[in-house]
Amino acid sequence: MSSPILKLVAQRLALGVVLLFAVSVLIFAGTQILPGDVAQSILGQAATPQALANLREQLGLDDPAYVRYFRWLGGVLTGDLGKALTSGQDIATSIGGRLENTLFLAGCAAVVAVPLAILLGLLAVRYRNGPIDKLISGLALASTSFPEFFIGYLLVYFFAVKWQIFPAISTVFDGMPFLQRLQAVVLPAAALTLVVLAHMMRMTRAAILNVMQSAYIETAELKGLRPIDIIRKHAFPNAIAPVVNVVMLNLAYLVVGVVVIEVIFVYPGMGQYLVDHVTKRDVPVVQAVGLVFAAVYILLNIVADIAAILANPRLRHPK
Amino acid sequence: MAKAAAKTAHDGPLLDIRNLKIEATVYPPGEEPKQVTIVHGVSLTLQKGKVLGLIGESGAGKSTIGLSSMAYGRGGVKITGGEVILNGRDILKGGAKGVRALRGREVCYVAQSAAAAFNPAHRLMDQVVEAALEHGTGKRAELEKRAVALFRKLSLPNPETIGERYPHQVSGGQLQRVMTAMALCSEPDLIVFDEPTTALDVTTQIDVLAAIKDAIRDTGVAALYITHDLAVVAQVSDEIMVLRHGRLVEWGGTRQIIKEPRQEYTNALVSVHHIEHAEKTPTTAPVLSVKNVTASYGGGEVKVLKNVSVDIHPGQTLAVVGESGSGKSTLARAITGLLPPQEGSITFAGRTLSNALKDRTKNDLRELQMIYQMADVAMNPRQTVGTIIGRPLEFYFNMRGRERDQRIAELLEKIEMGKGFVDRYPAELSGGQKQRVCIARALAAKPKLIICDEVTSALDPLVANGILKLLLALQAEEDVAYMFITHDLATVKAIADSIAVMYRGEVVRYGPKSQVLTPPFDAYTDLLLSSVPEMELGWLEKAIAGRRMAAAGN
Amino acid sequence: MLDIKRIPTGAWIGLLVTGVFLICAVFAPWLAPHGNAEIVGGVWEPMSSTHLLGTDNIGRDLLSRMIYGARITIFIAVLATALSFSLGAILGFTAAVVGGWFDTGMSRLVDLLMSIPTLIFGLVVLSVLPSNVVTLILVMGVLDSTRVYRLSRAVAVDINVMDFVEAAKLRGEGMVWIIFREILPNALSPLISELGLRFIYAVLFLSALSFLGLGVQPPNADWGGMVKENKDGIVFGIPAALIPAAAIALLAISVNLVADWILNRTTDLKGGRGNG
């Protein structure tokens, strides 16, 4: 490991931290400075001016925006996300278990989707322009066009209602045995997998194809190497970075897909929690959950970038 | 092994290609894909240890024929007819396994761009010995020893350790030599050299060429040497085959081809640079005068022009010569105002030009026109020839309607193209026609000076020749001055009145052509002039010997 | 330029289906057998000759709801796309040609906006904004314009460094000529194809919001909203919710096919070997 690489990685990490702060400003601004009135929203149109004023004071809404931002940020940094307006519960506590549930669901989907997508992407390259390849591009077209709930309800309709193999509603609770929990998330995880799979394999295919069309692959062919050796020795080392990049970007996409899927399957995760509280206009919860989602998303993007840096031979072996 | 047996038992020609037919599928935009024939029944034979040069313009099918000796078709190209007999057997009938056994063992390949042909993820040594290891011709340690010896023979710096490096850590000229070592390391019977020096600067080319030639001689390997440069191929080949549009034009000994060509086309290739041009003497009132110009990129950090002064006289041609990175194109950018100089002044037609483009008057812009290297990107693909040539007429002279159309027709006449081209789009023109339209666009402004930035280097030699002749004819007619930027000294000798030689952002030699090209030379000009291949047998040896003497004298 | 015989089958299907949806959207009141909010039968009646697609969760004719839903879905998506496109393309082109601090500032802002997933940021903002159609269009349009900005800036930057643009600058042409006569004609094909993709994205985004209950509010409903209304039927084996969901998929696929075709038809105008 040489120093230019460490420097680049450190730079990327520092940039990520800066970005997180900027995002926190943006999320705060999005909920505070836009022309909606939180107090009005909570109490509705019929609220008396006195009630509005009381609530504003209680929420600290009369302070200037930057004061409220730093108060909020200070809380976030010390692990205090505030209390939900509607239920008065501590947000950090509520998020804890739900975040775990969401990560479990997304993790299950990723464990299936990532190897499958890479395998299918490789197959598509191997049999390029053949039926498998055509099928994959067809699926990719469909997948970018299908709304998540279409896939979700199709699965429910057939697997839960017609054939009754899996439950339509994914109930999980603390202390649930692992296998039972796994069975509960089969359908939502399958739906999530389908949402990201085609996209991921299409991008994998493009990344590998790009490598396969390089001049050094021709060189390897003209050395009389076997196709499997060409892929293993010459294509693979150069394809790692783009493929890792593809995987990370799609995992980030998965984080978003999880919102709708959780609502479909009434799964007690972050997405469900966010949507509920957006409907109730519970701003502190929305801010906190939005920030957590954004942080995960940014983190995955940073990992993708760092993977690309680490896999680049020009950076690993500077002149 | 069967193939080893074949190698020893056989005593006919090494390579015998009979009636080779090669086709490719092309996908014209918006049309059905169709089959086109790239090579129409070409035959050749190559004896052991001999070098055959394949020469032709782009589209002649020379690389395709070269690769057929490895049973390889690049990018959808298919061998559809004929036989390729290598060491006594038809390799097209050998199947995938048979083909693999010969690639990297009996035949090896050296690509045009070694920088792209090496895998960026592996050390050079691993790639050099890979083919020989794969085919089991030796143990790793012994192969590495052989590779080091080859590195030394090819005059690579640090032959012991250069194999430890990665491709991006080595310069282009060195990589080209490492690639040659890679081909030689398998001790093949035949090497296909596919334009191995084309991408290199002329002073680097000569070293690589000499290294390749020595290596071929010492190892006794046979070679197919593919290039578009007859002067280069004449240095290394025993025989030369001239190809055009996938057909054989002429095939003979090197001496016969360059001294007594029998076909008209070969003759045209050989005599390509013979242009009649009498040198004009400098006047007292230059049209453009560049005085002590210094310019840099990145806010003064990288100085790309250092104290440059040159004059261009009315109706005359100044050739600016130099290799890549010499600052010759930057000088054009400084003169046009695209890169405002930091110091110095530019006087044009008696007026001092503002440094920045945006401060210049319309008249300044009109009288100073530019023609680019890549004609296809110098014209808006969505505009017709009529619009492209007509726009300067509208813009500078307010010409409209019939008057403008009349003038467009005149200009098309001048560039030897008919009226029928007015409604064509650039994509529908050939390379030479595109460059002619660019010339017409520049002429439309009635300029005093045209800057020509490598205008012929993307063209095939015969087409380029036509463009040069046209430019000279137009100069006589319109009394326009040219600043001709090029890396090609043959072009310079053909058309220049005065010459400026640039090296690392400085003008190292400047004056009338006859004076600049007469000794005594400064070191760089000497190196540059002595590196330009001449169409003469034995030129390479003479040039290298001259260089060694100069080095010894120092 | 356009030869009808050369349109591939896929693009034909795309054009046809998109056309049918557009006709439904424009002529909804004349085509729909019943009113949008009219209750005409029992809850979740199956498909029959009187109700071709059956009835919905409170007994409204599903076919009529679908036709009106097409109108609402397409109307909002078209306006949001128009907003995102004009905003993104104008800013992107300007940034590419002007360069300097304007370019840097805009590009950093867009990077920042894109570092939050669009759906999440949309939800955050919608939690405080009044729920109506104008808000929806504005939020969707502004958030999506970041992607259009990126593309049009990249395309324009690529074209801006080409020699023919430099030639125009050297001739002394003004900014207007350079943007509209040199750059725009060459940027058109990727942008038109992107227009299709942005429209699909707008449809999907709107559907997702409505499905989550944060988009179009009852009694009006776009297709996403209709999925929400009828989703409880699924567990009883009533597929009413699948119909609007399938309609969204169908519309998206057909627009995708058309966009793909436009992109393929116009990518390589410079001639030579195409993408084999």
Explain this structure to me?
The complex is a heterotrimer of chains A (319), B (554) and C (276). Chain A has 319 residues and is mainly α. Chain A has helices at 3-32, 38-43, 49-59, 65-77, 91-126, 131-145, 148-162, 178-184, 186-212, 215-222, 227-264, 270-279, 283-311, 313-316. The longest helix of chain A has 38 residues, at 227-264. Chain B contains 22 helices and 20 strands. A six-stranded mixed β-sheet of chain B has the order 6-7-8-3-9-10, with helices on both faces. A six-stranded mixed β-sheet of chain B has the order 16-17-18-13-19-20, with helices on both faces. In chain B, α6 packs across α7, α8 crosses α21 and α15 (385-397) runs parallel beside α17 (431-444). Chain B is globular. Chain B starts with a helix and ends with a helix. Chain C has a single domain (73-270), classed as MetI-like fold, CATH 1.10.3720. Chain C has helices at 9-26, 28-31, 62-98, 100-114, 118-126, 133-160, 163-171, 175-211, 223-230, 242-267. Chain C starts with 8 loop residues before the first helix and ends in a 9-residue tail after the last helix. The interface between A and C is large, with 53 and 44 residues.
Please provide a brief summary of the model:
The complex is a heterotrimer of chains A (319), B (554) and C (276). Chain A has 319 residues and is mostly helical.
Secondary structure tally, helices of chain B: 22
Give the CATH class of chain C: Mainly Alpha
Strand fraction of chain B equals: 15-25%
Kindly give the count of domains of chain C: 1
How many separate helices of chain C?
Answer: 10
Descriptors for this entry?
heterotrimer; A: 319 residues; mainly alpha; MetI-like fold; 78% helix; 0% strand; C: 276 residues; disordered C terminus
List the topology elements.
The complex is a heterotrimer of chains A (about 325), B (about 550) and C (about 280).
Chain A: H1 3-32, H2 38-43, H3 49-59, H4 65-77, H5 91-126, H6 131-145, H7 148-162, H8 178-184, H9 186-212, H10 215-222, H11 227-264, H12 270-279, H13 283-311, H14 313-316
Helix pairs in contact in A: 1-13, 5-6, 5-9, 5-11, 6-9, 7-9, 7-11, 9-11, 10-11, 11-12, 11-13, 12-13
Chain B: H1 2-9, E1 15-26, E2 34-46, E3 51-55, H2 62-68, E4 77-86, E5 89-90, H3 95-102, E6 107-110, H4 114-117, H5 124-134, H6 140-153, H7 172-185, E7 190-194, H8 202-219, E8 222-227, H9 230-236, E9 239-244, E10 247-253, H10 254-259, H11 264-270, E11 288-297, E12 302-312, E13 317-321, H12 328-336, E14 343-348, E15 351-352, H13 362-367, E16 368-371, H14 375-378, H15 385-397, H16 401-414, H17 431-444, E17 449-453, H18 461-478, E18 481-486, H19 489-495, E19 498-503, E20 506-512, H20 513-516, H21 523-531, H22 539-553
Parallel strand pairs in B: 3-8, 3-9, 6-7, 7-8, 13-18, 13-19, 16-17, 17-18
Antiparallel strand pairs in B: 1-2, 1-4, 4-5, 9-10, 11-12, 11-14, 14-15, 19-20
Helix pairs in contact in B: 5-6, 5-7, 6-7, 7-8, 8-21, 15-16, 15-17, 16-17, 17-18
Chain C: H1 9-26, H2 28-31, H3 62-98, H4 100-114, H5 118-126, H6 133-160, H7 163-171, H8 175-211, H9 223-230, H10 242-267
